[in-house]
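Design job #97: recover the sequence.
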């Protein structure tokens, strides 16, 4: 920490005899001027310049705030532009290495509530590296809260306010085109060969809510279903998460029973990129919601007599 001598201390110093009077007079004069110009000095910690993000949704926010150049490492789920692909990858966010994190000499670590294991983060806390742990965003309110916290940690309040305003505008447009009556909906993805359906407290459920839909299931997280079980839910809207888009027709071919659902009959089987569901409700999820609503509108217009 820097230490400063007050103007009063300078004045109270005993006189010192020197041979050259002019330089001494010049120094004392400069001190007097500085004491008048800077009666009070306020010093703030410098904004973090070496940031690690271990969550895809958090990385998106950092980039949207205009701080991509501060990133020195990200987790494997984070999406980067071509000119950022050289950044070190730190592995899966639940299996981080404390040594790997420290080797990048970060001055700010941004992690989700699922980051770990705990022993991987302990060395950073011991080294006094600030660690901001953020909850998963499963609604717009939490997404905005996370944006505020990240903007504050990076000392980017103005960029944060601009991003929040953009979020409000996008959500307003999404709500404007949402269906007047909430369709009964299912969000479906595949994991290790099993069909998984999104329940409450999941990014899938958050996306359905953005679309103005009512989730057909009422449990927390994801559960496995058979094709027969999915047909029993008989959704009016079926959203399929996949890495290759469009995926709707491929899934209906693989699981032909789904063709007998109300969603298939109404041609409201649509696909969302699975990366939009990584890390909770994200900026990518908002973009996907806008795209999906456009597809739903087209389907409704095509079905209209």
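Job complete. Output follows.
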């Amino acid at each position: 920490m820097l230490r400063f001598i007050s103007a009063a201390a300078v004045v109270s110093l005993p006189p010192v005899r020197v041979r050259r009077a002019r330089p001494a007079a010049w120094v004392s004069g400069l001190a007097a001027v500085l004491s008048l110009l800077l009666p009070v000095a306020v010093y703030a910690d410098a904004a973090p310049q070496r940031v690690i993000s271990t969550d895809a949704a958090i990385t998106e926010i950092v980039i949207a705030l205009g701080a991509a150049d501060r990133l020195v490492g990200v987790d494997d789920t984070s999406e980067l532009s071509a000119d950022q692909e050289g950044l070190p990858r730190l592995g899966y966010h639940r299996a981080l290495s404390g040594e790997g994190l420290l080797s990048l000499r970060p001055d700010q670590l941004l992690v989700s509530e699922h980051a770990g294991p705990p022993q991987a983060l302990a060395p950073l806390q011991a080294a006094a590296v600030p660690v901001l742990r953020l909850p998963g965003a499963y609604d717009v309110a939490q997404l905005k809260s996370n944006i505020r916290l990240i903007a504050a940690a990076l000392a980017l309040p103005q960029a944060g306010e601009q991003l929040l305003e953009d979020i409000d505008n996008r959500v307003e447009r999404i709500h404007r085109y949402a269906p007047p009556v909430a369709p009964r909906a299912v969000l479906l993805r595949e994991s290790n060969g099993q069909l998984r359906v999104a329940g409450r407290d999941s990014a899938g459920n958050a996306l359905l809510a953005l679309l103005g839909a009512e989730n057909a299931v009422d449990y927390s997280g994801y559960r496995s279903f058979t094709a027969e079980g999915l047909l029993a839910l008989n959704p009016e809207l079926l959203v399929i998460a996949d890495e290759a888009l469009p995926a709707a027709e491929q899934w209906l071919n693989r699981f032909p029973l789904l063709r007998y659902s109300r969603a298939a009959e109404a041609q409201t089987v649509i696909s969302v990129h699975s990366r939009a569901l990584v890390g909770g409700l994200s900026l990518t999820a908002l973009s996907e919601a806008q795209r999906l609503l456009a597809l739903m509108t087209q389907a409704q217009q095509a079905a209209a007599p």
